[in-house]
Amino acid sequence: MQSISLAQMAMATGFVLILIGFYGALTQRNLLRMIVAFTIADTGVNIVLVAVGHIRGRAAPILDVAVPAADAVARIIDPVPQALVLTAIVIGLGVTALMLAYALKLHERKHTLDIAKLTELKW
Amino acid sequence: MNPMSPLIFGITLVLCITMIGAALMAIRAKRLPIAILAAGLVSLVASILFLVLAAPDVAMTEAAIGSGLTTFLFFFVLARIRGAGQGDAETEANQHD
Amino acid sequence: MIKRAIALLLLFAVGALFASLLVGYVPDSELNQTARYYAERTAGDIGAANIVTAIVVTYRGLDTLGEVTVLFISAAIVGLVLAQGRMLGNAPGNAPGQPRAPVSELLSTGSRALTPLILLLGVYVFVNGHLTPGGGFQGGAIVASGMLLLLLADPLKQFSHQLISVLESLSGLLFVGIGVLGILLAGGFLDNRLLPIGRLGELFSAGVIPVIYSLIGLKVGAEFSSMLASLSESYKTEKSEES
Lengths: 123, 97, 243
Description:
In chain B, 81% of the residues lie in helices and 0% in strands. By secondary structure, chain B is mainly α. Chain C has one domain (50-89, 106-237). Classes of the chains: A mainly alpha, B mainly alpha, C mainly alpha.
């Protein structure tokens, strides 16, 4: 039972979330449901990224009484993936807001959210 | 390398199962508000998982932005679409092909 | 049916790829070179107790500038896309006689007590970004949640878009201005040493990081509030035309 690590479990969950999100985005017909599926896939990617930086038995990268500055190298986990994921979460919200605004305008013009009915770009 | 304590293993297992269950519910729910709330639940449990993975900054950001603001954005847009089209978006678009 | 089968097949292939990545994955036991550099140098060069903050604001400050730009563009596009509907005056047909549910008294009274506390929490989080977990983006999101509570409690509230856009533009301008000052007065663009480094763990330490993060917090909070306000206002315009 102890042969898998925390990072591996979190990474597996992240991968499963990505697959579920993509499945939803590929098979749903309602635009809003597709956007919800994209949000789930986004969360999955962030979990995988943070799980890469985890080192067993170490603490968060904050220097305080528990982790003094002198032995920071031996006691903290990798701070770079956390900085990347911070940016990624905020940008994910911006992209979701854009997708929702476009879905709103599409609904105003065409009065439908069904993607099978929006066929102007089909050959 | 010392193995993780059974408590952490148990907590992580419960969190992962909750997340996957909520994601499946978000994809397969019949009504759209349930799907949006399930996606918000996925974000919330992900923020707890980030805390277990020793990333407090990321946990705070995911809880505030992913779980809070995204769910509100979805509900504002849903309310606008429902008010405008009298719910035709819900009744006519089926879930699957 | 065919489409479902193809989708499942694709996902199965991607899943097999992920599984092969997962099986061969051995987690690190020591920090890699980059992380070791950041861990060793942060306390001395930057003086910030939160290493992630030091990376986001100073070591990779240019990426944060890019992120702030992307957020600004997306907020501007959302405002533009939703404003055209209001200007052209085409509100799609509402159901006539749809009554608006009255806001409960618990919500309106509670929001008066809670909103100042939420704003205070948001400001605390981004001012103390270099000491405790937190920072500009988290604090800005909390401030936007406070504004959202105001919107929910009083749906006909008009937010002054002028004030929000002035705040947002000013914060962005000051952020870039501090970066350029870094070229003139210190080591380079967005360099930290404009203000004194101070002692590790104090509020007025870590050079210019608290100032930059406060500006980012204000900018992000203003942007999210304006996104939410433009979504909710268009809805209000259509509703109030009927009532």
